[in-house]
């Protein structure tokens, strides 16, 4: 694969989109300045505004926040050699922030058009939900278009004979990793209850649009899928690639005992030093895979022995 410094999709969604969103707010103020009061409400305590600012000052402040905060997170997606799943996660978080601020800003401006007094203007709560949903949707689209441009190096020899081998290659091997259905059901139940309570207290539907993306993002960090086939080793999250290694890149696979917290400092997707990654979701056996480019990947699974043997056998046959 051609080596790149920047991922084109990451540049568009992680850099261009936040700058365009910031410019949209500035443009809206410029187009509406004749219809806006000299001071607009920009902050609320409960339902009453308690902070006011000139439209242009407010627009420039939010533009800076959008670029520095939202754009600062999402811009990591443009770095072609970064860890793919981390780039995807940061893009979704960054553009969710961008969408939230942009839609809320436009809604606040529209609500104060042609007013002579803004003392009783209410915050447009629906914009919080719509902005979150729009930003997350754009971030998810951008994340699905990112590609892995890391360095790929072919192994020069077969795995050592001391490593396990499999006698039966029943491919593909597909194994879920991380939180099970019961845990996810409990998570969604708690999230749904929190959303329902917030909707009831606010007497509005918009909290649902905030809690739904948060639940999806949480699942992406808790649930993974391991696939081993004749093409290689793959780990997916939300149906998108987290790790993709071809069989030709693998130098060997072994089995070791792993404690996620003592060995990697936590549960889930972890990085311990440069090029040393883990999907550590349970205490016990794990597949430890090494690659010709120097990277290492640890995946906890009860079938570690069989998976390691299958990988080594595929490498030897190749």
TrEMBL record:
Domain DUF1648 as annotated: residue spans: 19-66
Q: Which domain of life is it from?
A: Bacteria
**Cross-referenced InterPro entries:** DUF1648
Q: Which Pfam families match?
A: DUF1648
For this UniProt record, the keywords arranged alphabetically read as follows:
Membrane, Transmembrane, Transmembrane helix
- Membrane spanning residue stretches: 9-29, 59-79, 91-109, 125-146, 179-198, 204-224
Q: Give the protein name, as stated in the record.
A: DUF1648 domain-containing protein
